[in-house]
Amino acid sequence: MLKVKNVDVSYGASQALYDVSMDAEIGKVTCVLGRNGVGKTTLMKALSGHLSAGKGQIEWMGKDINGQAPFDRARQGIAYVPQGRDIFSQLTVEENLETAFSALPKSQRKIDPEIFALFPVLQKMLKRRGGDLSGGQQQQLAIARALLLRPKMLILDEPTEGIQPSVIKDIGKVIELLRDRGEMAIVLVEQYLEFAAELADEFIILERGRVVATGSGDELATSEQAKELLAI
Ligand SMILES: Nc1ncnc2c1ncn2[C@@H]1O[C@H](COP(=O)(O)OP(=O)(O)OP(=O)(O)O)[C@@H](O)[C@H]1O
User: Fold this and answer.
1) Closest approach atom of ligand 1 to CA 206
2) Distance CA 220, CA 113 (A)
3) Closest Cα to atom 12, ligand 1: which residue?
4) What is the pTM of this model?
5) Spacing, Cα 38 to ligand 1 middle (Å)
6) DSSP 8-state assignment for residue 61
7) Which residues belong to any copy of the ABC transporter domain (predicted)?
8) SS3 label, residue 50
9) Beta-strand relationship, 153-157 and 78-81
10) In a mutational test of the pocket of ligand 1, which residue from 10, 11, 47, 205 has the highest number of ligand atoms less than 8 Å from its CB?
């Protein structure tokens, strides 16, 4: 279980997060919502270890992990799919998947066929270069690579950004399936209220670096405050 407590994060002298708290539980989707530039990605980087919190605690499975490097957090089951996907365009799909192996013990360094059950398109495109895939396929590849780490927490930063509706639906189905298995916590950053409301068990909304609303997924769909804060 993730417990973020009263976290501040700054870029040099410029503070991006103020006193942010949130939880994420195994078997649940926790959505982080907010408009452009409110601090969603900054918060995800603080969870993944790409940024450190200047104040507050980030507890994972009862241990404060603030200050630990991304690689160490990956070994503790935290997988991060950054916004913009970050796949290697010159490597094939297969090679991209294999880049996850460096964080795995030798015995686990194989591509679980289950990955292709979740993302059949990747099996068809194994020998294609990452850069030749569509945006939606690249997003699926990035999620598949994260899943090879057998995460206990999967952090997805705006997986629907710039992606066609049919692939958004596919990604939504995979998120639901992963949640229902009850083996990982999913933290989902979103700007689209509809997509988030369908998937969220819990949500937080950020505004100018602060948490300004929290609640359950059911509340999100009908929340006037959420509509207002997301300017819908
Ligand atoms: N590397 C950086 N250096 C300095 N300031 C930054 C840096 N990255 C982000 N910021 C600032 O921190 C604030 C939060 O940005 P962040 O990217 O976390 O927002 P976001 O909610 O993820 O936005 P988006 O939806 O556009 O990705 C913004 O004011 C942004 O300008």
Assistant:
1) 21
2) 35
3) 16
4) 0.94
5) 7
6) T
7) 2-232
8) coil
9) parallel
10) 11
Query: 70 alpha carbon to ligand 1 midpoint, in Å?
Result: 19
What is the CA(112)–ligand 1 centre distance, in A? Answer: 35
In CATH terms, 2-229 corresponds, of 3.30.750.24, 3.40.605.10, 3.40.50.300, 3.40.50.2000, to: 3.40.50.300
Residues contacting 156, CB < 8 A, separation 6+: 81, 143, 175, 186, 187, 188, 189
What radius of gyration do the chain's Cα atoms show?
17
Strand partners, 80: 155
Please give all residues whose beta carbon lies within 6 A of any atom in ligand 1, as ranges. 11, 14, 16, 34, 36-42, 83
Contacts of 6 (CB under 8 A, 6+ apart): 19, 20, 21, 55, 56, 57
Domain ranges of the chain: 2-229
Kindly report, residue by residue over 1-35, the tens digit of the pLDDT.
999 999 999 999 999 999 999 999 999 999 999 99
Please tell me the predicted confidence (pLDDT) of residue 131: 94
CA of 26 to the centre of ligand 1 (A): 28
Select the more confidently predicted residue: 101 or 128.
128
Contacts of 101 by beta carbon, 8 Å cutoff, 6+ apart: 109, 148
Atom of ligand 1 nearest to the CA of 83: 27
Q: Which two tokens stand for residue 206?
A: 């950020």
Going by CA atoms, what residue is nearest to atom 20 of ligand 1?
37
Q: What ranges in 81-133 are assigned the alpha helix state H?
A: 93-98, 114-118, 120-124
User: Residue 232: what pLDDT?
Assistant: 59
